[in-house]
């Protein structure tokens, strides 16, 4: 089958790889290259890197509607999308014989939108999954063709769940396509009364709020690890946090104070008298490091018991 694939981040690569193993991927559509200001060079999307390495044709339109003629000229029988990153007009979605499907990283109708994996972890969900849906003009609202669940463990973060869901999406995509080819795969309408949304992350989502309980802070750290990373402010600096644990300690301190300190962590008071222990941090323009290394270096003069971080 001739397929146009549309996707951008690493999440989409395994799905593209699986499609390419069984079908003719006639065109790959991905987002434009992004300039890395730190490295002072352009970075290719993960999908572009894989596609070029496997001699697939790639286009990167600034606006997808401008690529309608190119996509139609490729004469796809099906369009498959996975974390593409742009709203696709119905004129493109409707052009293939079998229309278009999307591999979405949530248990729809929950978490429609651009950050379903991050939001599910940040909200403390115990499970998530992949929904393969028919694409419609309304965002993530099409009929569900297939859906599978996985648990979210306390040891999981954004990166591990992305990896697990990418693999699950790749596992699910070929059977869905076979069902579409046979014409016997019936979609299930989403329950509009159960819809929730997962908008793209904003800068304010990254700041830790220690007035929340420690479990909520822990979930936010996991949901933002590794990109873009959660942070708190101390001595005028944004210090990112990549790893933490909920302490068994209880405290009478108001939220946002350093309440204990040892060689490999420091602990901060949170809402409801709870405590979060910080294990891995990053200073501006620095590298990620264990708190033990931080405390042996610059952190020695920054971290002290009874010092306020703030909320």
Structural description of this entry:
- The protein has 311 residues and is an alpha/beta fold.
- Helices cover 24% and strands 26% of the residues.
- It has helices at 13-22, 46-53, 68-73, 90-93, 116-122, 158-182, 214-223, 291-296; strands at residues 2-7, 24-29, 34-36, 41-43, 58-59, 78-82, 100-104, 127-134, 144-151, 230-234, 237-246, 258-262, 265-269, 275-282, 289-290.
- The termini are far apart.
Outline the secondary-structure elements.
Layout: E1 2-7, H1 13-22, E2 24-29, E3 34-36, E4 41-43, H2 46-53, E5 58-59, H3 68-73, E6 78-82, H4 90-93, E7 100-104, H5 116-122, E8 127-134, E9 144-151, H6 158-182, H7 214-223, E10 230-234, E11 237-246, E12 258-262, E13 265-269, E14 275-282, E15 289-290, H8 291-296
Parallel strand pairs: 1-2, 1-6, 2-5, 6-7
Antiparallel strand pairs: 3-4, 7-8, 8-9, 10-11, 11-14, 12-13, 13-14, 14-15
Helix pairs in contact: 1-6, 5-7
Question: What's this model, at a glance?
Answer:
With 311 residues, this protein is of the alpha/beta class.
Structural key phrases:
single chain, 311 residues, alpha/beta, six-stranded antiparallel sheet, 8 helices, elongated
Mean residue pLDDT: 96
What fraction of residues sit in β-strands?
A: 25-35%
Computed over alpha carbons, the radius of gyration is 22 Å
How many H/I helical runs? 8
Question: CA-to-CA gap between the ends?
Answer: 54 Å
Q: Sketch the topology as an H/E string, one letter per element.
A: EHEEEHEHEHEHEEHHEEEEEEH
How many beta-strand elements?
15
**Multimeric organization:** single chain
Helical fraction equals 10-25%
Low-confidence stretches: none
Shape: elongated
**Order of the strands making up the biggest sheet:** 5-2-1-6-7-8-9
Taking the sheet with the most strands, its summary is: 7 strands, mixed
Helix-and-strand structural type: alpha/beta
